[in-house]
Design brief:
One of its GO terms (molecular function) is DNA-binding transcription activator activity. The protein is α+β, with helices and mostly antiparallel strands. The protein has 23 helices and 10 strands. It is extended and about 90 Å long.
Length: 482
Amino acid sequence: MKPTLQLKLTQQLKLTPQLQQSIRLLQLSTLELNQEIERIVQENPLLELRDDWSSSEANNSSESVESPRSVDSESASIEGSESEADIVSEENFEPDSEWLQENSSAHNTFENDDWEALQVPDKPLSLRGHLNFQVSLSSISEYERKIIGLLIDSLNDDGYLLQDLGELVDLLPAELGIDLQDLESALMHLQQYDPPGVGARDLKECLVLQLQALPGEVTYRAQAIKVVQEYLGILASHDFAQVKKLLGCDDLTLKAIQKLITNLNPKPGIQFNFQSERYIIPDITVVKRNGVWLANLNMSAIPRLNINHLYANILKQEHHSARGLISQLNEAKWLIKNVQQRSSTILKVAGVIVERQQQFFEHGEVAMRPLVLREIAETLNLHESTVSRVTTQKYMYTPRGIFELKYFFGSHVSTDSGGACSATAIRALIKQLIQEENSKKPLSDNKISTILEQQGIVVARRTIAKYRESLQIPAANLRKSI
């Protein structure tokens, strides 16, 4: 075959590093964004992160949205700024003095005397620490303390001993000489410690231990112990007639016994499970002005990036000998623009959401209207994937609470009038109906479906059951009271 040369034209879509960075920043939460920027600032000496501004400054400089078109000019200016003219090359480097002045800040210095010693709070006491402290105060032998310590290490976070004692004996080295009787004796000691119910092997034993720890003069204590030991399953199924027949008591007595049992703690160790709080920084705040709800950027959540004044002057004065800083200056410019672009996109999407959900802010969940990603994407001429990134892990502070932007989206159910009702609104209606029901005659799923149908909302019984379960509301027979 004779070799030949061919000319072929093809089109390929390639993501530049700057565009990749823009997409990555867009999908980060506010906390993750701040962590990422802190990392980049440490690596790039041209960048400086300002933290010397107050919340009052943020409130005064916050931007509001009356409609999605009110930020089009801002978006255009940011998108248009990503041009070749903004990229600094080593061959034709000309310091942009005006840009540097607008985006640089004075280099701050700190004196060591200005820093105060950090006060580290004491670590909360764990369940094991709490129990081991009680063991150390007990008048028992060292041998018994070691066995009880072994059982304490075998407890789960709820305070239960789920491992069988026989299996535990088999796992222990034979040279320790610990038999089943030793473990049972140690377990009896452990179950006398605080919190009551610790060391139980199942729920029944846990509740019985707590009831036994109550003073003997507590009314109906003995009857409650009998109910837990013998009739707990019947009581859990709300078959109160059967429990009354077995106990030979009236409604008032059974109600007092039930109250005594329900006040017990099924997870005695949970109070010692301290987990670090997950803080949420809202990206958007919603306020009402002139009768209209508007979305504002939370400026206190946006990192304030500037070009470092010291290194900017080096580039201005000695750019021929500081070529290594030119690429870092470009990266700094791109990062600042990408952060601005991220804020602008979040503001635009939030503006449309608030515009569509005006009734929610007035009347709550029952007034939520159906909304899908495609509707926002078509309004703002964005891709659905972009809207999905914007609404994930981005939060809105409203007078009704803090919500993730995704919360305002939901499927719809058709109504008799030809309209649509949001699934969120239907859940709110179901919750409201159940809260207002007669506890002695709770509403069944069929009855709730009939009530909604009378209001023009046609929802099948199985859909009602699905929404009810998503709200963690038990079935009608389990909601029935005495």
